[in-house]
Structures are given as structure tokens and as C-alpha cells.
């Protein structure tokens, strides 16, 4: 059977297919504790630190920025980050991460989405994290005819949120594999999933104005997905905090913005021209083009040169 989901719609202006999420920038209350968590529990490395800010990743490009601000707190019922998702190269690395969580007795939720194998957990300040690897050989998970569908490779249907077979997952580890090893160099930010206020406005912004592929909107599930190059999703969005949810307060913990990398300066200029043509307000920063979606989630279009 075909285990590749096709875009529901492709914009007349198409974002470059090699575009990919870069890093997520979080406002945190305790920088020291968050650095320690992301190093010791998640397995990231400290790339650099400047005052109250830190940069982390897997040894190549940054995947996470943290900035400490005093007096911030967690707000509920707002738009913002649902989760950030780190993509690992294979099941062995995911098994290592899950094994470390279990060894540390840190609460986590291993889940089989058929198309991917994922584990979910919250950091020390309530930011949700997904860590996953691709498993397209097992089937598909996506939106078909306006519904969320998970179909195994043999054609049988799954709800796409099954408990992971941990016995199978741990067969990918050998006896000398260290659970404390950091995330591998190949680790990327696979996708970012957002709380939004309106599905239609979000789809219009990311698909029709910015040119991302529409991978489908599951209205009964109150969720949609967009991507570059037909990937199952680089940005997920949902109204699970309620339709019309307000943006978070300026003194809120959580996401400041995320970056989306275009392959070169020419593509960055092409995106700037597109936003000017479609009336999208943006600011030119040293790092790239800063824009907010209709729910006030911040994003910076950047390139590897920055």
C-alpha cells in the first residue's frame, strides 16, 4: 500500500521544499535548572551562554534558546507553544532516550503514532516536549477527507495514539549502549505544534500567504498541519485551548518565537517579497524576517548563513 500522505493543497507560491524548523526560543524562570534539565534529562549539549541566555543543541545547529526573565509565570487558556518536537535519526536513539527517562524515573508517555514513534514529557516549567523518530514502514498518520487517520502498512486502522511496544523498542539497544550518551549530531527540530485561536485564519496564513503545503485540517479534531516539501508536518496547530483563545501575557513563561530555516539568502528575499505582496507585516532583524501569525505566535524566517 502507499504509505505516503500527499498534501491536500499546494499554494501558488510554494515555500522551498528544503525548508525546515530551526530552534525554539523559550522564556524561562530559572535558567540554571532548565540548562541542567535539557542537558541531563533530554540529552542536549550547551552550545553557549551569554548572561541570562543560553543556546543548546546536539553539537551542530542550535535547537533551543533559553532566556531567563524574573517575575514570569505560566498562563493557561492562551495561544502559544503546544509542544516542540526533536527528531532523532532512528529507533536506537529513541530507545536510548526513553531508557534514560525510565532510569531517572522522569514521567514520560511513549506513544505509537504508526508513522512515527514518539515520547512526550514536560520540562521543569511546563513546556511540553515530543521526541520522535520516523517509522513510515509501519504505515501512515495524517488527515484524510477532513479526519485524522492512522493506517498500518497492512491496511488495518489504528487510532494513531497507541501505547508504544517498549519491548520491541529496547531491542534496538545493545548491552554496551550508554543511556547517558547525548543526542546524536543528526538530531533536528522536527516540528513545532502551536495553540491557535482560529483554524481557518491559521491555514490561510501559513498556506495561502507563506506558501507552506496544506497537509490537512481535521475540523472535528480541531487541528491542522502544514509543511515544506510534503513532510507530514513541520507546523501543527490546534484550537484545544478554545476558539478565540487570547495570546499569552508579556510576563508569561513559554515560547518567544521559533525559527524556520530557508536554504539560502535568495529564498529569504523571495519570502520577503511574498509577504509584501500578501500584506503580511514583518520586521527585518539581524537573524532574518520576524513575523507573527494571526494568533500572535512569533516566527523568524532565517537561513544557515545566520
Structure summary:
The chain is of the alpha+beta class.
The domain count comes to: 1
The CATH topology corresponds to 2,3-Dihydroxybiphenyl 1,2-Dioxygenase, domain 1
What gap, in angstroms, lies between the N and C termini?
Answer: 42 Å
The number of strands is 20
The CATH top-level class label: Alpha Beta
Strand pairing plus helix content: what structural class? alpha+beta
Shape: globular
Widest β-sheet, arrangement of strands? 12-6-7-8-5-13-16-15-14
Question: What is the N-to-C order of secondary-structure elements (H for helix, E for strand)?
Answer: EHEEEEHEEEEEEEHEHEEEEHEEE
- The CATH superfamily is known as 2,3-Dihydroxybiphenyl 1,2-Dioxygenase, domain 1
* Beta strand %: 35-45%
Mean pLDDT across the residues is 96
Task: Explain what you see.
This protein has a single domain, classed as 2,3-Dihydroxybiphenyl 1,2-Dioxygenase, domain 1 (Roll), CATH 3.10.180.10. It contains five helices and 20 strands. It starts with 19 loop residues before the first strand and ends with a strand. The protein is 18% helix and 37% strand. The protein is globular, with a radius of gyration of 19 Å. The strands form three sheets. The chain has a nine-stranded mixed β-sheet with strand order 12-6-7-8-5-13-16-15-14, with helices on one face. The protein is α+β, with helices and mostly antiparallel strands and 306 residues long.
